[in-house]
Design brief:
By secondary structure, the chain is mainly alpha-helical. The chain has a single domain, classed as Up-down Bundle (Rhopdopsin 7-helix transmembrane proteins), CATH 1.20.1070.10. Helix content is 75%, strand content 3%. The chain is built from ten helices and three strands; from the N terminus they run E-H-H-E-H-H-H-E-H-H-H-H-H. A three-stranded mixed β-sheet has the order 2-1-3. Helix 2 packs antiparallel against helix 3, helix 5 runs antiparallel to helix 7 and helix 7 packs antiparallel against helix 8. It is globular, with a radius of gyration of 21 Å.
């Protein structure tokens, strides 16, 4: 093969070629995708329908749900389609589009989570200034900034792939077009691509993780100074859902993109990818609805009206 213009499609080698296992995986991932869509759409509608949820925290949560819908829809439909096919393929253009979208959405999500951490910091540590500080303009800028960061991250890592050459059968040892397995399938020198990927993950990852970490250091310090156990419990309950979501995303996402190649394996890569691209978008609305009294109360009001 001479260059990328000769490319027509990639072949996925991920998951399984066993017909029975493929049917099993199809049913599992189809159910997960339906739960993801229904859960996140429900969160968005509940927030829009209940005026008591017109607050910065739920403004960010609605955008997080929108990102999760897009992220899951970027991966799941093609995965489900390929699970029903004998040969799992994707066009070259489709592969780059899927890769760009997943990079964009994953980084947008972590920056929205960082904005949510700052929101919780202001609410717990500076409650008297909360309304003034977390005004509508600031919330809009934070969400806009999250999308801009995601776009830059995706552009920085997608553009260099246009110069790559791919060998043999153009096989990708994965179930989707993620950048690390795509680079491994290239017969070009990917040293520069890997440097760009690692550097951008460090910059954008730490750029979102450090504000989140600093926010929670201040939050925990403030909570520990509350004298009553009930007061500490209430303060911590406002942050626990967010902490769970942040932990799930950072542990798997950062592990996937920053782990040494010496401990990389197809199975491990797929487990990490399934966690942050398929399971986390499904779990987010469940975590926030089960651990959030306001959301449960709003759901109850809507069902009672019906």
């Amino acid at each position: 093969m001479g260059n990328k213009t000769d490319m027509s499609e990639f072949i996925f080698l991920g998951l399984s070629n066993d017909p029975q296992l493929q049917i099993f995986f199809f049913l599992v991932f189809f159910a997960i995708y339906l739960i993801t869509l229904s859960g996140n759409i429900t969160i968005i509608l509940v927030i829009r329908m209940d005026p008591s949820l017109y607050t910065p925290m739920y403004y960010f949560l609605s955008h997080l749900s929108f990102v999760d819908i897009c992220y899951s829809s970027d991966i799941a439909p093609k995965l489900l389609m390929n699970l029903l096919m004998k040969q799992k393929t994707i066009s070259f253009t489709g592969c780059l589009t899927q890769m760009f979208s997943s990079l964009l959405l994953s980084v947008t999500e972590v920056f929205i989570l960082s904005a949510m951490a700052y929101d919780r910091y202001v609410a717990v540590c500076h409650p008297l200034h909360y309304v003034v500080t977390m005004n509508k303009a600031l919330c809009s800028y934070l969400v806009m900034g999250a999308w801009i960061m995601g776009f830059f991250f995706a552009i920085i890592n997608t553009v260099p792939t246009f110069n790559l050459q791919f060998c043999a059968l153009h096989e990708i040892n994965h179930f989707s077009c993620e950048l690390p397995p795509l680079l491994k399938s290239s017969c070009s020198d990917t040293f520069l691509n890997n440097i760009i990927l690692f550097s951008s993950v460090m910059i954008f990852g730490l750029g979102s993780f450090i504000p989140t970490l600093v926010s929670y250091i201040h939050i925990i310090s403030t909570i520990l100074m509350i004298r009553s156990a009930e007061g500490r419990r209430k303060a911590f309950s406002t942050c626990s859902s967010h902490l769970i979501v942040v932990g799930l995303l950072y542990m798997t996402g950062m592990s996937q993109y920053m782990k040494p190649s010496s401990i990389s394996s197809m199975t491990l890569d797929e487990i990490f990818s399934i966690q942050y691209s398929i399971l986390t978008p499904m779990l987010n609305p469940i975590i926030y609805s089960l651990k959030n009294k306001e959301v449960k109360r709003a759901l109850g009001k809507i069902f009672r009206k019906k």
